């Protein structure tokens, strides 16, 4: 009987210590906050090839669900687990890894985290990544998420500085496979990235500014492969829920993008986008691309 009383008492204490906020999808345990978040996104799209052939298709559009954890203590640990969800999949590929990392916040010493993380360089070129489907075609980078990484972030004077090192442990490769650095001062960010195995360098600068009701963002990036440079730039303007962008690979293709993202409720919205890809090759036709979709963000 005493054992039963002990179990009941333990459950009562645990229940009193655990609070759940359904509106914010946040679970709070003493000194630990765990937030569930995600996006369910579905679209229909029509993308032409270089001969102007195309067909309407439908499918998942980067849906995901994640868990973000932070601890308030002497260590201040944090972590995130995020998986891509294919909401239109009937096979075995429903889930895919997006982010999985843990770290500690050392205060004045900075934040340290390890695992599969967002690229700190793509955070610079991503200044113009405002569309649901199209855009960001002129960006030059190594990828938006990288595995087997260490990220160190800290404030240096007025700047926020982040460094990423990747060591994937593959045979016949360098000890440090990739490294990246980025710095942000106010609305301006700069970044550098290098693949040590291929000797490819990336450089970028971006910025944003509000002109009354118009929000402007722009990015310029360079990929240097053994002296052969590929340069790209993009600029995007947003008024309310309408965005228009232009991107160009120097001496290459250019892109004109427009989209509207209309909220229906706080979580539910619908969107429509168009992109014209103007091909530099005379043997390739310009491509018209259309997309409509709906999403729930929580």
Q: In a nutshell, what does this entry contain?
A:
With 298 residues, this protein is mainly β. The chain has helices at 2-17, 122-125; strands spanning 19-21, 26-29, 32-47, 56-60, 64-71, 77-85, 95-105, 111-118, 145-156, 159-166, 178-185, 188-195, 200-211, 214-225, 228-239, 242-249, 254-263, 268-278, 287-297.
Biggest sheet, open or closed, and with what strands and sense? Answer: 16 strands, antiparallel, barrel
The secondary-structure element order is HEEEEEEEEHEEEEEEEEEEE
Given as residue ranges, the uncertain stretches (5+ residues, pLDDT < 50) are 1-23
CATH architecture: Beta Barrel
Write structural notes for this entry.
The chain is mainly beta and 298 residues long. The protein has one domain (20-297): Beta Barrel (Porin), CATH 2.40.160. Helices cover 7% and strands 59% of the residues. The protein contains two helices and 19 strands. It has helices spanning 2-17, 122-125; strands spanning 19-21, 26-29, 32-47, 56-60, 64-71, 77-85, 95-105, 111-118, 145-156, 159-166, 178-185, 188-195, 200-211, 214-225, 228-239, 242-249, 254-263, 268-278, 287-297. It has a 16-stranded antiparallel β-barrel with strand order 3-5-6-7-8-9-10-11-12-13-14-15-16-17-18-19. A hairpin with a 5-residue loop joins strand 7 and strand 8. The longest helix has 16 residues, at 2-17. Residues 1-23 have low confidence and may be disordered.
């Amino acid at each position: 009987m005493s054992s039963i009383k002990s179990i009941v008492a333990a459950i009562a204490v645990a229940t009193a210590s655990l609070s759940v906020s359904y509106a914010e999808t946040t679970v709070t345990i003493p000194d630990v906050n765990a937030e569930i978040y995600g996006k369910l996104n579905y679209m229909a799209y029509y993308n032409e090839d270089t001969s102007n052939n195309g067909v309407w298709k439908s499918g998942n559009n980067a849906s995901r669900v994640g868990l973000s954890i932070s601890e308030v203590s002497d260590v201040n640990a944090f972590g995130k687990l995020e998986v891509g969800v294919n909401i239109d999949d009937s096979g075995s590929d429903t889930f895919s890894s997006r982010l999985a990392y843990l770290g500690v916040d050392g205060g004045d010493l900075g934040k340290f985290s390890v695992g599969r993380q967002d690229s700190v360089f793509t955070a610079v070129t991503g200044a113009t990544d405002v569309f649901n489907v199209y855009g960001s075609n002129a960006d030059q980078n190594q990828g938006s998420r990288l595995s087997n990484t260490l990220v160190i972030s800290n404030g240096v004077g007025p700047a926020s500085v982040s460094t990423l090192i990747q060591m994937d442990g593959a045979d016949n490769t360098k000890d440090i496979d990739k490294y990246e650095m980025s710095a942000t001062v106010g609305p301006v960010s700069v970044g550098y990235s290098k693949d040590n195995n291929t000797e490819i360098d990336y450089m970028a600068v971006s910025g944003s500014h509000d002109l009354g009701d118009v929000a402007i963002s722009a990015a310029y990036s360079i990929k240097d492969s053994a002296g052969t440079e590929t340069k790209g730039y993009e600029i995007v303007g947003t008024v309310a829920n309408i965005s228009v962008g232009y991107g160009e690979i120097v001496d290459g293709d250019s892109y004109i993008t427009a989209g509207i993202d209309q909220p229906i409720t706080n979580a539910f919205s619908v969107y429509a986008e168009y992109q014209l890809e103007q091909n530099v090759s005379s043997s390739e036709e310009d491509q018209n691309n259309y997309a409509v979709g709906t999403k729930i963000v929580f």
